[in-house]
Specification:
The structure is a homodimer. Helix content of chain A is about 35%, strand content about 30%. With about 325 residues, chain A is of the alpha/beta class. The first copy, chain A, has 2 domains: about 120 residues, ornithine cyclodeaminase, domain 1 (2-Layer Sandwich); about 190 residues, Rossmann fold, CATH 3.40.50. In chain A, the strands form 3 sheets. In chain A, strands 10-9-8-11-13-17-15-16 form an 8-stranded parallel sheet, with helices on both faces. In chain A, strands 1, 2, 3, 4, 5, 6 and 7 form a 7-stranded mixed sheet that branches. The first copy, chain A, has a two-stranded parallel sheet with strand order 12-14. In chain A, helix 4 links the parallel strand 8 and strand 9. The two termini of chain A are about 20 Å apart. Chains A and B meet through strand 3, strand 4, strand 5, strand 6 and strand 7 of A and strand 3, strand 4, strand 5, strand 6 and strand 7 of B.
């Protein structure tokens, strides 16, 4: 067993390959060919902290993954990052622990953004041109960058609560993506008027997007609501949507945007389309006027896919003479 | 974060200190002052393997523990041990992963045996002299050794299905414990005639001890039944017992020896005494004629206690000039 640090891990990430691996993970999960254990949660109230453990194994994979992620929200005041943790890669053939990927959260950030890419490709109408990003953090940055790089979008508009941070992100993306037009939206409503795909990436606990702001033809990818109590979009939007994709039906019904809509009777569990099922069989046809939603809460098959990809690359390279 | 291997770990184990730590862990658990997450289980049928993940944090401890344990039962044919895994020690103050204790199962063996010591001290009658061990594996060896070393017993009798292995264990223990009389019992029934405390340490799936073999005054410590389907003692023994101690009421009711007895209507859940409660308040008085049972299924507070003890020792020693 070895510990592999963040810098070394990043050398072994091939985002295009991981994109395919995560798609396959979602397909296996929807087809009942992946084991995804219930998420383990520990709370540390005195330190304003928590720990989640997620485990998955995709059938026939030679390794499985256990991810430990901590969030201690008073850390920044101590000069430490809020997030920490690792992914352990273990042989599914003989149970031997192979590696600790001490990724400092970067693999989770990447696999989350790549699910956004997958959900965008799956659900956006073919004439979609402009990506709208709600949020000015790491996830907003990554989603914008990877969606443009991997899917060829040429126009991005960003809104976040902190206008200064949004301006900085617009500048960064402008230099990272010289062929893409990147702009700041003055309000979330203004963003909705311009965006064909809206990706929400905040930890908000109240809707940032009202249903009547969203134009026909828009595809919403909701990424932020990964635990109970979080909400980024008006639940009424579900009543307007022709199709709702969910990365995990059980998680999305329990928390996520879908949970709010189900509670309000605006969508039924039977109407949800598992993301992996749509990836395997193709999404139902959509018109250019349809509003569609993808609710992403994060599934351990994504961790398993990215950790396996990194580990396979480490092994290939160490085997070279 | 660092990986600490088995040899180094063993230098940092002080069994007397860990015994107290595990007792405190049981007390905290019974008092609702420990977080113990539900056990996560993954199965790998094609490889005849499985993985369990156990997590615990005892209130006010500065670290918490996540234990990953694999069992791949075709490994010995490939020249590999069946069991593998590690304990991760993580800061409960800021979420930083501190160490991976790659113990190869030795800490689990030890914490299991130390719970046997605790249950023996708690439940055995004061006039008890002879320890009977059922099973000739690592756990049988450790229980005999630690019960004698830590509690001062001077007489051990052992029975197991493999008479040759029992004979070898008798020889080993004889040289390890020169002041103790160690003997081999020809049958389990003969063992019951001699032993005042019986510790069962096998992975049996059918009773090895019949209720009518057990003499009045005997204290039974059942260690082997750590998952559904396992059973070492006749469920009828519960009907004869004046007191039943359980390390975890929820686990013992779900699997363990107690589960079989509850299913058969021989004991009620309300009659079980949590081990930690009895440790905190003292066990109810017992006569020299009473039969008592301690059902131990293994609780993550034991892992947390031993991992914390090792980590504290590592830190103390690395801090020395």
């Amino acid at each position: 067993m070895q510990i592999i640090g963040k810098a070394e891990i990043l050398k072994h990430v091939d985002v295009r390959a991981v994109l395919g691996d995560i798609e396959n993970g979602f397909k296996a999960f929807a087809a009942g060919k992946a084991q995804v254990a219930p998420v383990t949660h520990l709370g540390f109230d005195a330190a304003n902290g928590e720990c989640h453990i997620k485990c998955a194994h995709v059938a026939d994979d030679s390794v499985f993954t256990v991810k430990l992620a901590t969030g201690f929200y008073d850390n920044p005041a101590k000069g430490l990052p809020s997030s920490n943790g690792f992914m352990a890669v273990i042989s599914a053939v003989n149970g031997t622990p192979l590696a600790i990927l001490q990724d400092e959260g970067v693999l989770t950030d990447l696999r989350t953004a790549l699910a956004g890419v997958i959900a965008t490709r799956l659900g956006a109408r073919s004439s979609a041109k402009t990506i709208g990003i709600i949020g000015n953090g790491i996830q907003g940055h990554l989603q914008a960058k990877l969606i443009c790089e991997l899917l060829g979008y040429k126009s991005v508009v960003i809104w976040g609560r902190n206008a200064e941070k949004v301006a900085a992100l617009v500048k960064t993306l402008g230099s990272e993506l010289p062929a893409v037009e990147v702009a700041q939206a003055p309000t979330a409503e203004a963003l909705c008027e311009q965006a064909d795909v809206i990706v929400t990436t905040t930890p908000s606990r109240e809707p940032l997007i009202q249903a009547d702001w969203v134009r026909p033809g828009t595809h919403i990818v909701a990424v932020g609501a990964d635990s109970p109590g979080k909400q980024e979009i008006d639940a009424q939007l579900f009543a307007k949507a022709s199709q709702v994709f969910v990365d995990s039906p059980s998680q999305c019904v329990e928390h996520g945007e879908t949970a709010n809509a189900i509670k309000a009777g605006l969508v039924a569990e039977a109407d949800l389309t598992p993301l992996g099922e749509a990836l395997a069989n193709g999404a139902a046809p959509r018109s250019d006027e349809d509003i569609t939603i993808a609710d992403l809460t994060g599934v351990a098959v994504q961790d398993a896919a990215i950790a396996k990809s990194v580990w396979n690359s480490v092994e290939r390279n160490s085997a070279r003479p």
